Protein backbone atom coordinates (compact mmCIF):
# COMPACT_ATOMS: atom_id res chain seq x y z
CA UNK A 1 0.00 0.00 0.00
CA UNK A 2 1.70 3.20 -1.24
CA UNK A 3 -0.91 5.73 -0.10
CA UNK A 4 0.72 9.03 1.00
CA UNK A 5 3.91 8.12 -0.89
CA UNK A 6 5.16 9.22 -4.32
CA UNK A 7 7.75 8.07 -6.84
CA UNK A 8 10.31 10.88 -7.22
CA UNK A 9 12.14 11.12 -10.55
CA UNK A 10 14.86 13.62 -9.59
CA UNK A 11 16.52 14.32 -12.93
CA UNK A 12 16.52 13.69 -16.68
CA UNK A 13 17.83 10.23 -17.54
CA UNK A 14 17.46 7.63 -20.24
CA UNK A 15 17.50 4.69 -17.85
CA UNK A 16 15.37 5.59 -14.79
CA UNK A 17 11.80 4.35 -14.61
CA UNK A 18 9.32 2.29 -12.60
CA UNK A 19 8.14 -0.99 -14.10
CA UNK A 20 4.71 -2.21 -13.01
CA UNK A 21 4.96 -5.97 -12.63
CA UNK A 22 1.48 -6.85 -13.83
CA UNK A 23 0.02 -8.43 -16.92
CA UNK A 24 -3.62 -8.23 -17.96
CA UNK A 25 -5.04 -11.75 -18.35
CA UNK A 26 -6.53 -11.15 -21.80
CA UNK A 27 -6.70 -8.40 -24.44
CA UNK A 28 -8.48 -5.27 -23.22
CA UNK A 29 -11.67 -4.05 -24.90
CA UNK A 30 -12.29 -1.40 -22.23
CA UNK A 31 -9.93 0.21 -19.76
CA UNK A 32 -9.32 3.24 -17.59
CA UNK A 33 -5.95 4.46 -16.36
CA UNK A 34 -5.48 7.15 -13.68
CA UNK A 35 -2.45 8.77 -12.09
CA UNK A 36 -1.29 11.92 -10.34
CA UNK A 37 1.76 13.82 -11.55
CA UNK A 38 3.62 16.86 -10.28
CA UNK A 39 6.25 18.49 -12.48
CA UNK A 40 7.47 21.82 -13.80
CA UNK A 41 8.65 20.34 -17.11
CA UNK A 42 7.62 22.31 -20.19
CA UNK A 43 9.06 19.84 -22.75
CA UNK A 44 7.30 16.62 -23.84
CA UNK A 45 7.30 13.82 -21.28
CA UNK A 46 5.76 10.40 -20.82
CA UNK A 47 3.68 9.48 -17.77
CA UNK A 48 2.27 5.98 -18.46
CA UNK A 49 3.64 3.73 -21.21
CA UNK A 50 2.08 0.33 -22.03
CA UNK A 51 3.90 -1.41 -24.88
CA UNK A 52 3.37 -4.74 -26.60
CA UNK A 53 5.73 -6.46 -29.03
CA UNK A 54 3.42 -5.41 -31.88
CA UNK A 55 2.89 -1.78 -30.81
CA UNK A 56 5.15 0.43 -28.63
CA UNK A 57 2.35 2.97 -28.04
CA UNK A 58 -0.37 0.40 -27.29
CA UNK A 59 -1.44 2.69 -24.43
CA UNK A 60 0.40 5.93 -23.73
CA UNK A 61 -0.50 8.93 -21.60
CA UNK A 62 1.92 11.77 -22.20
CA UNK A 63 2.16 15.56 -22.11
CA UNK A 64 3.68 17.17 -25.22
CA UNK A 65 3.47 20.54 -23.43
CA UNK A 66 2.02 21.96 -20.19
CA UNK A 67 -1.36 22.73 -21.80
CA UNK A 68 -1.91 19.37 -23.51
CA UNK A 69 -2.41 15.71 -22.69
CA UNK A 70 -1.99 13.15 -25.43
CA UNK A 71 -3.62 9.73 -25.09
CA UNK A 72 -2.70 6.85 -27.40
CA UNK A 73 -4.46 3.55 -28.06
CA UNK A 74 -2.91 1.18 -30.59
CA UNK A 75 -0.50 3.80 -31.93
CA UNK A 76 -3.15 6.46 -32.67
CA UNK A 77 -3.85 9.41 -30.39
CA UNK A 78 -6.27 12.12 -29.36
CA UNK A 79 -5.32 15.40 -27.69
CA UNK A 80 -6.97 17.12 -24.73
CA UNK A 81 -6.16 20.79 -24.16
CA UNK A 82 -5.94 21.77 -20.50
CA UNK A 83 -5.21 24.94 -18.53
CA UNK A 84 -1.62 25.27 -17.42
CA UNK A 85 -1.32 24.44 -13.73
CA UNK A 86 1.33 26.25 -11.76
CA UNK A 87 2.83 24.50 -8.73
CA UNK A 88 -0.06 22.05 -8.39
CA UNK A 89 -0.23 18.33 -8.95
CA UNK A 90 -2.60 17.07 -11.64
CA UNK A 91 -4.81 13.99 -11.40
CA UNK A 92 -5.52 12.65 -14.90
CA UNK A 93 -7.70 9.71 -15.94
CA UNK A 94 -8.35 8.40 -19.43
CA UNK A 95 -10.71 5.64 -20.51
CA UNK A 96 -11.41 3.90 -23.79
CA UNK A 97 -14.03 1.45 -25.01
CA UNK A 98 -13.58 -0.71 -28.10
CA UNK A 99 -17.19 -1.03 -29.39
CA UNK A 100 -17.51 2.75 -29.96
CA UNK A 101 -13.88 3.88 -29.74
CA UNK A 102 -15.02 6.57 -27.29
CA UNK A 103 -12.29 8.11 -25.15
CA UNK A 104 -13.09 9.94 -21.93
CA UNK A 105 -10.63 12.18 -20.12
CA UNK A 106 -10.81 13.72 -16.66
CA UNK A 107 -8.49 16.28 -15.11
CA UNK A 108 -8.71 16.69 -11.34
CA UNK A 109 -12.04 14.86 -11.44
CA UNK A 110 -13.62 17.07 -14.11
CA UNK A 111 -14.71 15.41 -17.39
CA UNK A 112 -13.55 16.84 -20.72
CA UNK A 113 -15.54 16.46 -23.99
CA UNK A 114 -15.41 12.89 -25.31
CA UNK A 115 -13.44 11.98 -28.39
CA UNK A 116 -13.04 8.83 -30.48
CA UNK A 117 -10.19 6.50 -31.37
CA UNK A 118 -9.58 2.94 -32.66
CA UNK A 119 -13.17 1.61 -32.75
CA UNK A 120 -13.29 -2.22 -32.53
CA UNK A 121 -9.58 -2.44 -31.63
CA UNK A 122 -8.27 -4.84 -28.95
CA UNK A 123 -5.37 -3.80 -26.69
CA UNK A 124 -2.79 -6.59 -26.46
CA UNK A 125 -2.25 -8.32 -23.11
CA UNK A 126 1.47 -9.21 -23.28
CA UNK A 127 2.71 -5.82 -22.18
CA UNK A 128 5.53 -3.98 -20.47
CA UNK A 129 4.08 -1.14 -18.35
CA UNK A 130 6.37 1.72 -17.32
CA UNK A 131 6.11 5.04 -15.50
CA UNK A 132 8.44 7.90 -16.35
CA UNK A 133 9.82 6.82 -19.75
CA UNK A 134 8.29 6.35 -23.18
CA UNK A 135 8.98 2.99 -24.83
CA UNK A 136 9.96 3.24 -28.48
CA UNK A 137 10.62 -0.50 -28.42
CA UNK A 138 9.23 -3.31 -26.24
CA UNK A 139 10.63 -2.54 -22.77
CA UNK A 140 13.21 -0.04 -24.07
CA UNK A 141 14.15 2.52 -26.71
CA UNK A 142 14.09 5.43 -24.26
CA UNK A 143 14.77 9.06 -25.15
CA UNK A 144 16.15 11.33 -22.42
CA UNK A 145 14.14 14.20 -23.94
CA UNK A 146 10.89 12.37 -23.15
CA UNK A 147 11.87 11.31 -19.65
CA UNK A 148 9.79 12.45 -16.70
CA UNK A 149 11.20 14.63 -13.92
CA UNK A 150 9.04 15.20 -10.84
CA UNK A 151 6.60 13.07 -8.84
CA UNK A 152 4.11 10.38 -9.87
CA UNK A 153 1.60 8.71 -7.54
CA UNK A 154 -1.92 7.28 -7.25
CA UNK A 155 -1.53 5.02 -10.31
CA UNK A 156 -4.50 2.75 -11.12
CA UNK A 157 -5.77 0.71 -14.05
CA UNK A 158 -9.15 -0.94 -14.58
CA UNK A 159 -10.40 -3.24 -17.31
CA UNK A 160 -13.55 -1.16 -17.71
CA UNK A 161 -14.68 2.42 -18.18
CA UNK A 162 -15.20 4.44 -15.01
CA UNK A 163 -17.93 6.94 -14.21
CA UNK A 164 -17.08 10.47 -13.11
CA UNK A 165 -18.05 9.50 -9.55
CA UNK A 166 -15.65 6.52 -9.64
CA UNK A 167 -12.88 8.79 -10.96
CA UNK A 168 -13.50 11.03 -7.96
CA UNK A 169 -13.08 8.04 -5.63
CA UNK A 170 -9.79 7.10 -7.35
CA UNK A 171 -8.53 10.66 -6.80
CA UNK A 172 -8.77 10.03 -3.06
CA UNK A 173 -7.32 6.48 -3.20
CA UNK A 174 -10.65 4.82 -2.39
CA UNK A 175 -11.05 3.01 -5.72
CA UNK A 176 -14.28 1.24 -6.46
CA UNK A 177 -14.63 -1.08 -8.34
CA UNK A 178 -11.43 -3.06 -7.76
CA UNK A 179 -8.68 -2.17 -10.28
CA UNK A 180 -6.43 -4.60 -12.21
CA UNK A 181 -3.66 -2.93 -10.20
CA UNK A 182 -3.42 0.19 -8.13
CA UNK A 183 -1.66 2.35 -5.60
CA UNK A 184 -3.07 0.44 -2.63
CA UNK A 185 -1.50 -2.81 -3.86
CA UNK A 186 1.14 -2.05 -6.47
CA UNK A 187 3.68 -4.65 -7.65
CA UNK A 188 6.58 -2.58 -8.99
CA UNK A 189 10.31 -2.57 -9.62
CA UNK A 190 12.45 0.58 -9.69
CA UNK A 191 15.17 0.85 -12.35
CA UNK A 192 17.86 3.54 -12.11
CA UNK A 193 17.39 6.67 -10.05
CA UNK A 194 13.82 6.81 -8.79
CA UNK A 195 12.92 7.08 -5.10
CA UNK A 196 9.80 6.14 -3.18
CA UNK A 197 9.22 8.96 -0.70
From TrEMBL:
GO terms for biological process: acute-phase response; innate immune response. Its main location: secreted. Disulfide bonds join 34-93. This is Pentraxin family member. Its cofactor is Ca(2+). It comes from Asarcornis scutulata. PROSITE patterns: PTX_1, PTX_2. Keywords: Acute phase, Calcium, Disulfide bond, Metal-binding, Secreted, Signal.
Amino acid sequence: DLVNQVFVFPRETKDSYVQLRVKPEQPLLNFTVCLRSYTDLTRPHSLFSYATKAQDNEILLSKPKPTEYRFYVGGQFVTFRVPESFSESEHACASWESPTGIVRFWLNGKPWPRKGLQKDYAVGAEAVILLGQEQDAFGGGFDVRQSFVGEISDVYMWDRELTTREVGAAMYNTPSPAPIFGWRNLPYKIHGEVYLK
